[in-house]
Amino acid sequence: MPEQRLRIAIQKKGRLSDDTVKLLKACGVKVNLNTQRLIAHSENMPIDILRVRDDDIPGLVMDGVVDLGFIGQNVLEEESMMRKVANEPTSHKVVKELAFGDCRFSIAVDNDFDYQGVQSLANLRIATTYVHILKRFMEEANVPYTSCMLTGSVEVAPRAGLADAICDLVSTGATLEANGLKEVEVIYRSTAVLMQRDEPLTGEKQELVDRILTRIDGVQTAKESKYIMLNAPKSNLKAISDLLPGSDLPTVMELAGSTDHVALHVVSKENLFWETMEQLKALGASSILVLPIEKMME
Ligand SMILES: Nc1ncnc2c1ncn2[C@@H]1O[C@H](COP(=O)(O)OP(=O)(O)OP(=O)(O)O)[C@@H](O)[C@H]1O
Ligand SMILES: O=P(O)(O)OC[C@H]1O[C@H](OP(=O)(O)OP(=O)(O)O)[C@H](O)[C@@H]1O
Ligand SMILES: [Mg+2]
């Protein structure tokens, strides 16, 4: 009898862990992750969560060991390229782009390096974790170089005399700055994604995946959306509605005891900036409230 529980691989500890766990929780998947166990069973859904190093996640999905995996595109791309070279299975589907894990994969050199463009990297030794993505970029640029594979502390390689340049993940740039390095080429942009194994799942499992995907949409849209409430003079209702960003039809309600003002409620796909609030106020709006939305289903 086939395994009916959906198996999902997530990063055990690192940059993606908290956001992944938060997202699963927001999707209503109840699971106790306070233990050190490799596999955690959901209490309310037929789901098992496998907690592993992120590097192992694409392979687990591609080999059909798990059904879904939450992973950074950079790791997925690197593993796919590595497996192609090794003639190993690479098939999978990316079923959702996620609103976390945004970073770029960039080449950086010492602050005092006189960088004149990609040719300045010729014949340098470049330290990186993601050797295949770097190789593709350097080959396309037709620049010869030597690769130095490091699985951690890449940013200290130049100072330690291990390499002349690095290629690593950058988000705020603080790590580069702290190590006296400057970003000179962005070679890949990444975000977290949800990947699924390519072979069809059983009907029940696929139904569960579809439910999770709908819930992820609901959580992600809700996060970007705001519930806006304000009181508005009837005379300026049109001008005030027009100022509200990306909103659907507003709800207009009578205000007890007022004949010339109404309450206006609207779900907006964007945040409301202070500048817009000031404009709304200038049009006579008052008691303007902007509230976060937890979940949404359209
Ligand atoms: N500074 C960052 N900001 C946002 N996302 C990042 C950042 N750094 C890395 N990421 C994303 O998070 C993923 C995991 O990063 P992390 O540093 O936790 O990896 P790791 O050290 O390889 O972890 P593991 O121990 O699981 O192998 C990266 O592959 C990338 O997709
Ligand atoms: O541009 P920044 O905002 O400084 O982020 C970049 C750093 O973040 C990641 O490491 P992380 O902090 O996840 O730890 P790691 O050393 O375990 O990879 C990445 O490998 C960089 O070192
Ligand atoms: Mg890793």
Structure commentary:
The protein is of the alpha/beta class and 298 residues long. The protein folds into 3 domains: 6-100 and 192-222, 3-Layer(aba) Sandwich (D-Maltodextrin-Binding Protein, domain 2), CATH 3.40.190; 103-190, D-Maltodextrin-Binding Protein, domain 2 (3-Layer(aba) Sandwich); 225-292, Alpha-Beta Plaits, CATH 3.30.70.120. It is built from 8 helices and 15 strands. Strands 2-3-1-4-11-5 form a 6-stranded mixed β-sheet. The model has no long low-confidence stretch (mean pLDDT 95). Residues 222-295 form the Histidine biosynthesis HisG C-terminal domain.
Which key phrases capture this entry?
binds adenosine-5'-triphosphate, alpha/beta, Alpha-Beta Plaits, 28% helix, single chain, 15 strands, 31% strand, 298 residues, D-Maltodextrin-Binding Protein, domain 2, 6-stranded mixed β-sheet, cytoplasm, binds magnesium ion, binds 1-O-pyrophosphono-5-O-phosphono-alpha-D-ribofuranose, 3 domains, 8 helices, metal-binding, ATP phosphoribosyltransferase
